[in-house]
Amino acid sequence: MATDNPLHGVRVATESDIDGIVETFTSAFFNDPLWGPTFPDATLRPTQVAAFWRLFTTSAIRYPWTFVTEHCESASLWIPAGGEDLTREEEDSFEEFLVDIADRQIADNILSITGLFAAARPTEPHYYLSLFGTHKDHRGQGSGMALLRENLARIDALNAPAYLESTNPINIKRYESVGFQRHGGFTAPSGHVVTTLWRPANL
C-alpha cells in the first residue's frame, strides 16, 4: 500500500479531523451546481450543508479510507468495496434527519437526488469516491490532485477499480487526467446533469 505523501501531508483522517473536513466540504460545495441550489436559502445554507456533510463524514470515518492533506485543505471520503455511505441506523433515520436540518420540501428533493445516485452506482465491486473537495481558500495549489493521486495509488495496489460522480462539469477533465472514464450519468430533479466516471483496476 502507498505511504503518506510528504509533499502535501496526505494521511488517513481521524475523528479529530472531522470538524476540518466538514469545513472544507462546506466551502467546496457551497456553490456547487447541484448541491448549492438544493439548499436554496444562502443564509441558512452554511448551517444546513455543514450538518449534511457532517453526517456523511462522521459515518465514513469508520473506514480507514477517509484522507486529508496536512491541515484539511483537501479531503476525500472513499467507501471501500462492499461498504455503504451510511450505517443501517443512519439510513433508517435519514429522512427525519433531513427534515430536522432543513424542511419537508428540501428533504424530499434530497431523497430523490440520493436515490438517483444509488441507482447509478455500479454493482461491480469498487472503491467509491463519495466526497472529494478542496477548501476555497486553498484552490489552485495542487493539494486536491495530489490527494487524489495518492488515494488512487493505494487503490491500484489492491488491483481494484474506482468510481465517482461529478456534480460539476469543470472537474471532469481533472478526473480524466488520472484515468477515470465517462461511465454514464443522470439528471437531477432540478435538470442538472451529473456525470458518472469509472477507473478500471490497475491502469
Count up the domains: 1
Provide the gyration radius in Å: 16 Å
In one word, what is the shape?
globular
Largest beta sheet: strand ordering: 1-2-3-4-5-7-6
Q: Give the H and E element order.
A: EHHHEEHHHEHEHEE
Flag low-confidence runs: 1-6
Q: Helical residue percent?
A: 25-40%
- Give the integer mean of the pLDDT values: 94
Short descriptors:
disordered N terminus, 203 residues, alpha+beta, Aminopeptidase, 7-stranded mixed beta sheet, single chain
Model description:
This protein is of the alpha+beta class and 203 residues long. The chain has one domain: Gcn5-related N-acetyltransferase (GNAT) (Aminopeptidase, 3-Layer(aba) Sandwich). The chain contains 8 helices and 7 strands, in the order E-H-H-H-E-E-H-H-H-E-H-E-H-E-E. The protein has helices at residues 18-28, 35-38, 45-60, 88-92, 94-101, 104-120, 143-157, 172-176; strands at 11-12, 66-68, 74-79, 127-134, 162-166, 181-187, 193-199. It has a 7-stranded mixed β-sheet, sandwiched between helices. Helix 5 crosses helix 6 (104-120). The radius of gyration is 16 Å and the shape is globular. The model is unreliable at 1-6 (pLDDT under 50).
Map the helices and strands.
Elements: E1 11-12, H1 18-28, H2 35-38, H3 45-60, E2 66-68, E3 74-79, H4 88-92, H5 94-101, H6 104-120, E4 127-134, H7 143-157, E5 162-166, H8 172-176, E6 181-187, E7 193-199
Parallel strand pairs: 4-5
Antiparallel strand pairs: 1-2, 2-3, 3-4, 5-7, 6-7
